[in-house]
Design goal:
The chain has 338 residues and is α/β, with parallel strands linked by helices. The chain has one domain: Nicotinate-nucleotide-dimethylbenzimidazole phosphoribosyltransferase (CobT), large domain (Rossmann fold, 3-Layer(aba) Sandwich). Helix content is 49%, strand content 8%. It has a five-stranded parallel sheet with strand order 2-1-3-4-5, with helices on both faces. 53% of the residues are buried. It binds nicotinate mononucleotide (NCN) and 5,6-dimethylbenzimidazole. Nicotinate mononucleotide binds at residues 84-86, 163-170, 191-192, 252-255, 280, 282, 285, 303-306. It catalyses: 5,6-dimethylbenzimidazole + nicotinate beta-D-ribonucleotide = alpha-ribazole 5'-phosphate + nicotinate + H(+). It holds the Pfam family DBI_PRT. Catalyzes the synthesis of alpha-ribazole-5'-phosphate from nicotinate mononucleotide (NAMN) and 5,6-dimethylbenzimidazole (DMB). InterPro entries: Nict_dMeBzImd_PRibTrfase, Nict_dMeBzImd_PRibTrfase_bact, Nict_dMeBzImd_PRibTrfase_N, Nict_dMeBzImd_PRibTrfase_sf.
């Protein structure tokens, strides 16, 4: 499908008209859950997870047989502010590594049977440094949203999106600060491993970005354009497309969640089809998830990005859905007490 939007106004209208879950399928799944051979509630959050997936997939026997992982890569003008522990050329080098099968996400995608795709977006054209100018023009942010929109396979049954972009914890922190308020220093973290001075440079860059773009801070899509990045916009576009297809989404780390938060702040409820795969070690991620009301499935101290935490969470999702959809009921198994 070519993208159904040509402007931010079109995208905004599309977001306001997204489908909800199938309440009947969800009710049928809750009923089935009550009949499975286990004490009530004994599978804990796995039970809620299965019932939630049932609603979005529109079946009382939800599945994770065709998970799709899509990684978007972008480069950032704000790296000129000294905000990353790694040089910008690592972005294109890691894209080559993804394509050669050598990154963590390749191994995790294979482990959980996910189809994996990589989209490098204009890596030779970094966004503008947001401390000096809007990161993107409207045409650029719409093109990135459309790349994300087009990347989703409508036949996937679970969707994961991740990113690669040296410097991108800084635009992610800027989005979080713009969307939820608070001191920039409270949203920046060590990313790939910056020292104290690097952390201070990140907080300063975010503060200057917020000041420069103060006029748009009440408009989440303009915030994405002025303070975000191409891979962040692409993740937002992909998450919106998954919603249009009613495909449940597993969110990854801080950058992915910040991109997703743009949609929720633009239209409350826009992330109802998303769960948090994990909470990353990036200091603002837990706070961002709390602001979105999302409880992460995993907390393993990851701070890699590239969809890795969400891909790992596919293991939990697969376990939850296998139990829900394939366990015997008390009646089927002849077990007393159901
Ligand atoms: O997902 C996370 O929470 C996360 C936390 C820290 C770093 N990263 C990854 O590291 C890169 C951004 O870090 P930095 O220090 O360059 O801003 C980018 O490629 C991300 O995928 C990702
Ligand atoms: C090596 C490397 C791999 C990554 N994967 C996601 N972000 C990354 C950042 C770096 C620096």
């Amino acid at each position: 499908m070519t993208s159904p939007f040509a402007s931010l106004a079109d995208f905004r209208a599309l977001l306001a008209d997204l489908p909800g879950p199938d309440a009947a399928a969800q009710a049928a799944a809750a009923d089935r859950n009550g009949q499975l051979t286990k004490p009530p509630g004994a599978l804990g959050r796995l039970e809620d997870l299965a019932i939630w997936f049932a609603g979005w997939q529109g079946t009382d026997r939800p599945h994770c047989d065709r998970p799709q992982v899509v990684i978007f890569a972008g480069n950032h003008g704000v790296v000129a502010q000294g905000v990353s522990a790694f040089p910008a050329e690592v972005t294109v080098q890691m894209v080559a590594n993804f394509r050669a099968g050598g990154a963590a996400i390749n191994q995790l995608s294979r482990t959980f049977g996910a189809d994996m795709a990589v989209h490098a977006i204009e890596l030779d054209q970094p966004t503008q440094d947001f401390t000096k100018a809007p990161a993107m023009t409207e045409a650029e942010v719409v093109a990135a949203l459309a790349t994300g929109w087009a990347a989703v396979d409508p036949a996937a049954d679970v969707f994961v999106t991740g990113e690669m972009g040296i410097g991108n914890t800084t635009p992610a922190a800027a989005l979080a600060a713009a969307l939820f308020g608070g001191d920039p220093a409270g949203w920046v973290g060590r990313g790939t491993g910056v020292d104290e001075a690097g952390l201070a440079r990140k907080a300063s860059a975010v503060a200057r970005g917020l000041a420069r773009h103060a006029a748009v801070l009440d408009d989440p899509l303009e915030v994405l354009r002025c303070l975000g990045g191409r891979e962040l916009a692409a993740m937002a576009g992909a998450i919106a497309r998954a919603r249009a297809e009613r495909i449940p989404v597993v969110l990854d780390g801080f950058i992915c969640t910040a991109a997703a938060a743009v949609l929720e702040r633009a239209v409350p409820g826009a992330l109802d089809h998303c769960i948090a795969g994990h909470v990353s070690a990036e200091s603002g991620h837990g706070r961002l998830l709390a602001a979105l009301g999302k409880e992460p499935l995993l907390n393993l101290g990851l701070r890699l990005g590239e969809g890795s935490g969400a891909a790992l969470a596919l293991g939990v999702v697969k376990g939850a859905l296998a139990c829900h959809s394939d366990m015997a009921t008390f009646a089927e198994a002849g077990v007393s007490g159901g």
